[in-house]
Amino acid sequence: MQTYLRFVERFALPILVGLLAITLFFVSRLPELTADSNPYLLPENHPARKTILDMRKEFTGTFDAALIGIHNPAGVFNRETLDAVYDMTAAARRIILATDDDRQRLAELGARFGKQSPAWARAVEDVLADGLTQNDYAEAEKLAPLAESLPLSQAERDFIAFLPSRLNPVKELAGMAATENIVARDGVLVVRNAIPDKRTDPEIIRREVMGNRMMVKGVVSGDETVALIAVELYLKQEDAEGQLRAYEAFRSIVADYEKAHPAFTKANQTYIAGVPIFIAEQKKLIDRDMETLFPVVILVVLVILVLFFRRTMGVFLPLANVVLAAIWTLGLMAINRAPLDLITSALPVFLVTICGADAIHMMNEYYTQRAEGHPVKEAVRRAMREMVSPVILTTLTTMAGFLFSTATNISSIQSFGIYMAIGLVFAQLIALLLVPAWINLFGEGRRKGTQGASTPETVHHEWLGNGLVAAFRKVIAHRVGFGSAFALILVLAAYSASQIHVEDAGSSYFAPSNPFRQADDFVNSHVAGTSPGWVSVATGRPGGVLKLETVRFIEALDDFLESQPNVTYTYSLPKYVKRMNLVLNDMDPAYDRLPNEWENIRSTDPETGKAVVDKVSGDELVAQSVLMYENGGGSDLTNVLNSDFSKAISMFTMNTTRASEYQQMLKALDAWLASNTPAGVEVRIGGSPVIWTGVLQEIIQGQLTSFLLALSAVTLVLVLWLRSVSQGILAALPLATTMVCYYGLMTALGIDLNIGTAIISFLVVGIVDYSVHYLHRIQSARAQGMELDAALLHAIRHSGRSIIFNVLVFSLGFLTLLLSEFTTIVHLGALVALALSISGCLSLFLITLLAPAFLRGARVAADEAVSMR
Known about the structure:
The strands form four sheets. This protein has a four-stranded antiparallel beta sheet with strand order 2-5-1-6. It has a four-stranded antiparallel beta sheet with strand order 8-11-7-12. Strands 3-4 form a two-stranded antiparallel ribbon. By secondary structure, the protein is α+β, with helices and mostly antiparallel strands. Among the domains are: 1-32 and 311-459, Multidrug efflux transporter AcrB transmembrane fold, CATH 1.20.1640; 65-89 and 173-286 and 515-530, no CATH class; 96-168, no CATH class. Helix 23 packs antiparallel against helix 26 (659-676) and helix 28 (725-749) packs antiparallel against helix 29. Helix content is 61%, strand content 9%.
């Protein structure tokens, strides 16, 4: 301790200069901080995500799609609406998301490293030769391998990796102007787009589209009032900026068309939805929260510090501590390429609110020492001797809580836990250096020596202490009654907590007025739905899925899927085969089916003119249907068949974004597959329902395990540090009971346990400041000869004030999250404030209530009393 005190006194100026230099370094890295609004939350190697990523290697139609829905209450089969579908589809096909800034950036990279790598320079020149166009995709693909040997920053490597898909972002299109329809023309099979041009009679288009069950609910609603354009994007999910540009591009397409066609605008309303739009809208909210919440929480903490300390230094040093800790943490995230996502976007608020505790307690203790008449430097020494031990202890326990939150596969929670723990270390280091170094170097400004020493009344707010003593004197006098009442409340809370609902609500996290949520709700209630899933059927042999037995299995699978709640549409190989069979038999409804095992095929012998009947197997008819479709000019079969016909997929869509409803459907599907999958066939399921169900399961599995591990670790640290099993358990009890009450209140308030609210338990488990501070004051009072109950009241008078102040700082700081437009973050802010308030109150209440059972030991000597906050 003496070495530390001499160090901060002797090297005060170099310490401050060093802190400033480190801060400036991290500030310089902040522009590299990225955002990842990928909503899937799981790593790519997680089984829930890996399946769909594997499917994308073999099947088209499996990428995330933006959806443009056009609603005309009078019906979409009119010239104006059909022309809009045609023109918007064509415009979507032409979009390019690379900008002039991208061109300039690429040119700068080409010039910077051109001498080092002539091949790199030539490749860049080839891309830039005629400006950035969709045709540059192949040339841009060559850049990433060439860049591997160049000293590019990670941000520059990401730019090179994202550039090809930004140049040509559209993988595939679906809709009446893009999806192939199978029809007969003068006895000839024709495969063409449902809207082939802008001249075809709308009534003909209506008959052909509505007469094809593959298209109803897929590209047009059953009531003919909504037309859907699906734009499948090749963008990487981590390219949040690219997703945002895509959203803006689609909005421009719609806005430009509506401006140029007022009659269309008057009769139709257009919506934009889909996973890429979800990602883009989430990025907008993350950026907005970063711009608004950080300054607001700084202002809130500033006001509270002013009201509590009423001194410039008492405000400045704790505020500087949290700002520096936040800058260091965000700067390190930028260096490590750890992006801000849905959860980590709340990090600045957490850092500013929680990390200020060390400096606040140090300043409070310093002013207490000054009030006792000690000179500035002596007051600093005494304050540091008193505070170093509890600062380290509470930081260790809080870190433990957050680090155990990383015991999950949810990447957002992992990142949040890691960087919160790092931020706490930064805050502790900064506080232990900044506070004593600043005061030793500058003192109290104009106040020197013992002049201006604060009086206890002005520092401690005696009215608050008196009120707490009066309240807790009743608890001490009626322990049995209060204990019985609390036990009953705890039992009720535990039962309520056991009924908590775990959910991830997707688009419902956006405000009801949010345009994306309105569009998502509209599409889900009118057309196929915004949540696609795929079932892969693998036979292990080329041509295996063209066997009639396999096709029938897929048909039965489709029928089962369509019978499930929230499943609105299916799309698969059997639907193509049935459509071909229907069209080839003059639209006779009796042939709207799969072939039989054997079919009698009638034809006319060209030489004799006589009717001939051939017996053809169903397997052969399926294979012929596929061949005829391709010969007719069709290419959409790649959506449901791989190249050697060994695999097929069935796509289904759901009109919900709730993970619990996905889970219910998948549970039923798994049971059906277990009973109906043919021998030798391997089935895999992928897509949004699987991913979100995986997230839900990770929340459920990780919450209890991580909480118990964190609580055990924190209790062990407390026992070892306090050198007392009873005190360690007593200090940890308020944490456990807080979580029971917290989950019980969540159930009572109808708030789900989700990706945001799941992290609160790790925060609460680690915040032991209240208990430790209170226990220290109790033991200090007993060391001076006080009886237990008298020591409790003494501790309440002195520690209760700082506990209430910390609760106020924490709660008001987190309440700034209510300003977010994302429901998850709003719930997070409100519930953290609630949980920490409960924790502070229960720390005072339970320790006071249970002290006779845990603290009835011999009084410790004054010099052995554990030094706590």
